[in-house]
Amino acid sequence: MANITKKVSWSSRADESGVTAEGTPLLNGSEQPRPSRQLSRDGIFQVGRLSTVDLEEEMTSEEESLRGRPKEIPHNEKLLSLKFESLDYDNIENQLFLEEERRMSYMGFRCLEISRWVVCGLIGFLTGLIACFIDIAVEELAGMKYRVVKENIDNFTEVGGLSISLILWAVLNSAIVMMGAILVAFFEPIAAGSGIPQIKCYLNGVKIPRVVRLKTLVVKVCGVICSVVGGLAVGKEGPMIHSGAVVAAGVSQGRSTSLKRDFKIFEYFRRDTEKRDFVSAGAAAGVSAAFGAPVGGVLFSLEEGASFWNQMLTWRIFFASMISTFTLNFFLSFYHNKPGDLSNPGLINFGRFESDSGAYNLYEIPLFIAMGAFGGLLGALFNKLNYWLTIFRIRYVHRPCLQVMEAMLVAAVTAAVSFTMIYFSNDCQPLGSENKEKYPLQLFCADGEYNSMATIFFNTPEISVRSLFHTQAGTYDPLTLSLFTITYFFLACWTYGLAVSAGVFIPALLIGAAWGRLFGILLASITPNGSIWADPGKYALIGAAAQLGGVVRMTLSLTVIMMEATGNVTYGLPIMLVLMTAKIVGDYFVEGLYDIHIKLQSVPFLHWDAPATSHWLTAREVMSAPVTCLNRIEKVGTIVDVLSNTSTNHNGFPVVMQGADSDEPSKLCGLILRSQLIVLLKHKVFVELARSRLTQRKLQLKDFRDAYPRFPPIQSIHVSQDERECMMDLTEFMNATPYTVPLETSLPRVFKLFRALGLRHLVVADDVNRVVGLVTRKDLARYHLGSHGLEELQLAQT
Amino acid sequence: MANITKKVSWSSRADESGVTAEGTPLLNGSEQPRPSRQLSRDGIFQVGRLSTVDLEEEMTSEEESLRGRPKEIPHNEKLLSLKFESLDYDNIENQLFLEEERRMSYMGFRCLEISRWVVCGLIGFLTGLIACFIDIAVEELAGMKYRVVKENIDNFTEVGGLSISLILWAVLNSAIVMMGAILVAFFEPIAAGSGIPQIKCYLNGVKIPRVVRLKTLVVKVCGVICSVVGGLAVGKEGPMIHSGAVVAAGVSQGRSTSLKRDFKIFEYFRRDTEKRDFVSAGAAAGVSAAFGAPVGGVLFSLEEGASFWNQMLTWRIFFASMISTFTLNFFLSFYHNKPGDLSNPGLINFGRFESDSGAYNLYEIPLFIAMGAFGGLLGALFNKLNYWLTIFRIRYVHRPCLQVMEAMLVAAVTAAVSFTMIYFSNDCQPLGSENKEKYPLQLFCADGEYNSMATIFFNTPEISVRSLFHTQAGTYDPLTLSLFTITYFFLACWTYGLAVSAGVFIPALLIGAAWGRLFGILLASITPNGSIWADPGKYALIGAAAQLGGVVRMTLSLTVIMMEATGNVTYGLPIMLVLMTAKIVGDYFVEGLYDIHIKLQSVPFLHWDAPATSHWLTAREVMSAPVTCLNRIEKVGTIVDVLSNTSTNHNGFPVVMQGADSDEPSKLCGLILRSQLIVLLKHKVFVELARSRLTQRKLQLKDFRDAYPRFPPIQSIHVSQDERECMMDLTEFMNATPYTVPLETSLPRVFKLFRALGLRHLVVADDVNRVVGLVTRKDLARYHLGSHGLEELQLAQT
């Protein structure tokens, strides 16, 4: 029987790799990147099918990797980078921690809980304010620009010489975009794009360097204003999520490392567990401010981040979201001269879809599903093109000045294309009283009419989306819409990934709304009884959902965001079906846009479940072995050597204890982190010193919190030769009860434990509690279901 | 230092209890109920402060506990019943399971996933149909009743003799309620009430007997129709959640044990993990159908049930919810003669609150919060009264016939009170064209007018709620509203807990809407510029939220449900603040209504986190020890004896293996469940038999699935004296990689592991992997924060 032979071959493999594992854990055992292995669908390894990747090509110079150029992105998604650290969502329950918790009274816990609420309220408030600032700045600056250009065009339409207008428009756009691009490319490259992939990674538990710093926030906010005002095919919504996350990371720590200010508050929250919770709240507040969708925000955070569902946390996240959308709404109501009118939450609001007019019918659902499939196809095309473009950029456009020039080029081309489209369009519409065009371009239209192509090109994309959803049938003619769809599709695709901070939500919605509306118009014209399809806005909404779903492949949170942005439960089912179809169709060809960019950065991203066919693998195969262990009372020199070993660069070390009997094997008794050892070394917590200086103050949890999160590198800590001979007692500082699994635990089981508890290190122990291996994030993220079945990614130091 | 002395006293305690723990695990060690201990807020045990509970008083006769009378509820919430089993949310990864998973191809997993979606679709569809059936039945029957009574009243108003109308009304109500009460009291007592407490427990992981059976569903549906038609102060919404859950449990198993039909489909889903997931979907579909709130339904399920957040599961739950509300909406649109109009999702719809008219202002928020506090107070009063009533009922009204009589009495009193209120009311309103009164009672009003008290009393509660929310200012006079609030408050309180199936959502909303509207009217009359408070409907909404929040204390899901039912994001923040205030104020006095009823049943319910001040406790104190262990190859006789031991009645047994050396201690090597052992015994999987009957078919996972979930008791399995001497090899069937924790793990850490993975048994092992204890649900649920700090509940066999 095939089944038995498989089992035999497996156990023989296990024996091979188990040779070292059975021995006593070694000190300083360095871990080599493993050869690439690949598993076929039924689980047998097939070595060598994957072409070996030239590692040298991927290596970037030290200086470049420090500056964080996109060059450090290895352009091969079959690699997994080892440079990303994980967040520690599991509390480090060492003696210090337990003592602190035990000292705390019930009232103390209540106060902590209240301060968590206060922090969430602050996060919501500040995120709302930032959204408000971005909105007003964009509206004012864009208004100024459009007025100047419109005046110019109006002047030159009669006398001729519109090419001057074109040049004016293009130069204005390029100049504004240049400012944004310079900020991003030269000062903070991580602020490029929407930031959603980075926040996804952070919420997943990967520490992306500099992603939640104040500087990033400032660059992001200024950058997004420049890109939107500069007329690029981008939206201001995506970056809100990143902004909210930065606000959360800053506020919750009660200090700013960049500004060197410590407010001495919220010190309890200075650890990964609490910080990650607050960042979820910040991301949710960002979504909520962007789309006026507090519930959608909560679901976004949960979909991307949560592993363990915690009711109080969810409730706080919801509170932050509510405050954020409320703040935005409240301040914008003053800006719009309707003080106290709280009916317009969110930066973009799709406007109310009246359900009185019949909403939709059962027989329209197949049509919606077909639109979903089409959206999936178009989305896949978008992603594939953007993937190639990104690889091209990684190879050839990695210098900041080149990036700025590319951004300026895109801005100029966008202006030129828009101008050409408007120029050659003959689609004139009467300028009625209901058409609240902000900048109606008359151009060559008769008096009292305006150019309808200009409505979608000569406006911020948010206004164009609303216009496509809500203007009555007949406002746009089919030719306008098809031309617009095609040009905007390529412009948006080119724009995403530029060194400017901007989002892809709105462009995707706009493309979808355009072809959706086109579909609605065509449907009405080919059916005999056209009146029942009378509302092309409905199809615009479905098209927008389909296109966005096809590009980003979010499902649950996106459905709720769309539902909340339309303020309508009725369209819930069709939107959901459309998003599902778009995801299924799109996934057949290529992954979602965010996932592509995450993979291109080789981030060890953990998905929700282990790959379905991975029951073949056990902890024995998955774990890293041999493990660098430390003794409970260890020589300082050994610790310094272990930490300085750049070839391994481990972050967690199991602590073992020699049995009373000398030939008894040493048993696991705890786990200690690099960051803790660094603090211990810095404070010189050596046994000999403790004896000599009895008055010395005991190291407290506060010392660890003060060093968090930027622990100094080992190189910066000076340990003299004498001190190297001292001993360190780790008992008090190690986590004495790390989670362990036996060698035979299946990968899905290991995965579930790891994911549900947000672990960073999981010790694999044998049946007498000896350490035989260590499972970390990269060990689990390595396995994924590729087109050839279960595949194993390579590990790379970059 | 106090801290050190505490530590010393703790370790000495630990040594005491650790004496047996250090020894080799005993066979058949019976676990005695522990003496009640109580911890003060800073963690020191204070023995004897809690008065010892008379256990004998709580014991019920075997026959009674089998029939499931409410008598089996011990009326002391300081007890924790041992009779409730836990669900096993963790997969039992034994060899059989792993072999099956490994045999399955990638396509197999895809098919499974698709069938999960099909099942969820079916759940949604059937739940929607049931909701539709209930709605139509209630509307038709109640309409018939109201027409008869109205005709009678109209006749007798002129000629005098309205007492005949009163008698007619009271008799009609009593008769209808009697039918429902007989069904519930005599056929399926578990169908009483809304079923939400039971479903909360099930989703929490407690197996409540008979709660998801077909018979329960039938009784529930018929019962709820009778109670609503019978004019009780109840709603038809709560029971939908229970109905959805039953549908899910039935459909997902592909068979009905009650009907003895096995469709041979979905056999893979016949285990606790999958079933619990589907039941979450069913509960969500129920909420969704009841309130037209698909997102609220998902959040309800997650709030109550989920511990580990699984994206695909959440997405499926959402799908079931969507289908459910869509199905209901679709079929009801035909019933209401507006085919295809999908704008009325849900059994109750609060109607659109127009936000154009300014919605609310910032300065109204303190008013809303005050209303929330008032709602919390009223809710606490409601709960306290209902608590005393429930204890009274447990003591004196436990016979079915008494229960039926009480229900009839309540129905008659409700009719009498309503009649009296209407009779003495002088609040006449003009019968305008916009007032779409279904059954306007003229009574003593002038022609063309109607009695406005009758609008709220002479209608199903759902219609009354809508009327309070939306009729224009001036429809109700303050006296009417205050009288109504008071009478309805006591009626609803008396009604909840009767032996009829009915929900408390709508009555609570109605009470709140009444006093909220009253508050709005008073506000408008005392302020100089009354016009800005012109809309009393807004205050009715806030009052309804406050009252409901004060009674049930749900937060997150309730906010979303209310937001979806009003179709408005704008009111999200006030509703949230109101619900939070109501919860905080209410929790100060007494727990939520559902929690009270759960506690009165002594269910070992696990909350979200361990009590805040429980870091003092470790696995050593929490675990049950000594543990009954089995050897990997164990004598059949021993197994039968262990299973038959009624004094312990354990459900999980660690499996140990003797080391090669005889004085080496036996090590943990697996965990096996009672249900598995029962199946093994039933199929006589004995080592000797396997040798003699080589052709015998191997026991498969299917055999375990076929026996699920009603495993026979050990008494029904006959094992001969010869067979008792045989051996059983458990290797293949035990879970070889159970989760373990060391002795020193703190309670919060144990709790988190247990909760996040939905465990049933957690083995406590020492540093050489010997079994020293076992942590189960009851060990964790025992500790709770009472008014005197950390308290420990007593365990009782009942």
UniProtKB/TrEMBL annotation, chains A, B:
Regarding the membrane, this protein is recorded as: Multi-pass membrane protein
Q: Which residues form the CBS domain?
A: 734-792
Task: Name the Pfam families for this protein.
Answer: CBS (PF00571), Voltage_CLC (PF00654)
Q: Which residues cross the membrane?
A: 117-138, 166-187, 217-235, 278-301, 313-335, 365-383, 404-424, 479-499, 505-527, 539-563, 569-590
Its primary localisation, in coarse terms, equals: membrane
Q: Where is the composition biased (Polar residues)?
A: 1-12, 27-38
* Assigned keywords, A-Z: CBS domain, Chloride, Ion transport, Membrane, Repeat, Transmembrane, Transmembrane helix, Transport
Spell out the residue ranges making up region: Disordered.
Answer: 1-42
Location comes to: Membrane
Provide GO CC annotations from the record. Answer: lysosomal membrane
Superkingdom of source: Eukaryota
Against CDD domains, the record matches this protein to:
CBS_pair_voltage-gated_CLC_euk_bac, ClC_6_like
The GO terms this record gives for MF are:
chloride channel activity; chloride:proton antiporter activity
Family from the record? Belongs to the chloride channel (TC 2.A.49) family.
Name it: Chloride channel protein
Species of provenance: Gymnodraco acuticeps
Gene that encodes the chain: clcn7
